[in-house]
TrEMBL record:
Key words of the record: Signal, TPR repeat
Organism: Flavisolibacter ginsengisoli DSM 18119
InterPro entries xrefs: TPR-like_helical_dom_sf, TPR_rpt
The organism's place on the tree of life at top rank: Bacteria
TPR repeat boundaries on the chain: 22-55, 90-123
Signal sequence extent: 1-19
Record flagged with keyword Signal: yes
Keyword Ion transport attributed: no
Protein name as annotated: Uncharacterized protein
Length: 334
């Protein structure tokens, strides 16, 4: 009995040692990668894999190191066995897609994404990246993939971002505004968020109230036209142009009218959030945050100084919540 105990104790010590070595190797390699020292990261990972050749985390990081080093041939050599493994997870497929795209092996990437989405039909990142692959080869079916991603994974931001950009370059007026604002609320601290805020302001100025009577076509038209009609009621407010102040008035009245007419038929988290901000007295601060800085930074800074208490209350409120779109509120099926 004593011998069995000693054997089990020795085995547990070995297991802990290997786990510690793996963690140490990963941390060391990632420190090198953060410093863009790809060669040392690769060295550390390869030596760790000699001790633990089936360790998936070490393998993933090695592929990333080769990818960032732009040694795509070696990255492909390492990722292919992982893609062939039935236990491959979403990250493995994402890495594979990046490597295939870097090598411009579009057909292989296309085949891989289709396989991956059959296995992970609710993966927001895979839909987003597959759509990007199609968009790069000028296949406009990309929007169908992003829309599927929005429906399948409504709280993943990347598909909203891509779809908003796509719709901006069409005659659409609604979906750029809705998807763009949803994206900014999900990912508001990135450069992409600033880019999207500029696009939203431009869309309000250039598209929404120019030929507003034009109706959208297709399966999404009932919801989209309800949005257009509700915005149309506020048309008199923009006779002298559109800026952050007028957008605050337009969007406030939009929400008031929407909840009188369409909210019961079309529940929509973005509009619920806007109504919540109106009731809390924070909607003007929200609109300043959304449009003010990209329209006129000095005017925005002055507004925040004049309204410091309100703006601080809004930013604290924003930090204390995570914006998510629920399932069942996808009204743009193509």
């Amino acid at each position: 009995m004593k011998k069995i105990f000693l054997l089990l104790f020795s085995f547990s010590c070995i297991t802990v040692t290997f786990a510690q070595q793996e963690t140490s190797a990963l941390e060391t390699a990632r420190t090198y990668m953060r410093a863009a020292d790809w060669d040392n990261a690769i060295l550390v990972l390869n030596r760790a894999l000699q001790q633990d050749p089936k360790n998936i985390d070490l393998q993933k990081d090695l592929v990333m190191a080769y990818y960032y080093k732009r040694d795509y041939t070696r990255a492909l050599e390492k990722i292919q066995p992982m893609l062939d493994d039935n236990n491959a997870d979403e990250v493995v497929y994402q890495l594979g897609g990046n490597v295939y795209k870097a090598l411009e092996e579009v057909k292989e990437a296309d085949k891989m994404y289709k396989k991956a989405l059959k296995k992970f039909p609710k993966s927001g990142p895979l839909y987003s990246e597959y759509g990007e692959l199609l968009w790069e080869k000028k296949d406009y079916d990309a929007i169908k993939i992003w829309e599927k991603g929005i429906e399948a994974a409504p709280s993943f931001p990347g598909n909203y971002y891509n779809a908003a950009l796509f719709y901006y370059y069409t005659k659409d007026k609604v979906w750029t505004l809705l998807y763009g604002e949803i994206f900014v609320n999900m990912e508001y601290l990135t450069d992409r968020a600033t880019e999207m805020k500029k696009l939203l302001l431009t869309t309000y100025k250039e598209k929404l109230y120019n030929d507003l009577e034009t109706k959208t076509k297709g399966k999404s038209s009932e919801f989209a036209n309800a949005v257009l009609q509700t915005f149309n009621k506020q048309g008199s407010l923009v006779n002298k142009g559109i800026n952050t102040e007028t957008l605050n008035m337009v969007r406030t009245r939009f929400i008031l009218d929407w909840f009188k007419t369409y909210a019961a038929k079309y529940p929509y988290r973005l509009f619920d959030y806007q109504q919540q901000l109106i009731k809390a007295g924070l909607f003007e601060a929200y609109n300043q945050w959304l449009f003010g800085a990209v329209e006129n930074l000095s005017a925005f800074d002055q507004w925040t100084k004049t309204n410091a208490e309100t703006y601080t209350k809004f930013t604290e409120f924003q930090k204390g919540r995570v914006f998510k779109m629920p399932a069942g509120q996808h009204y743009n099926e193509l």
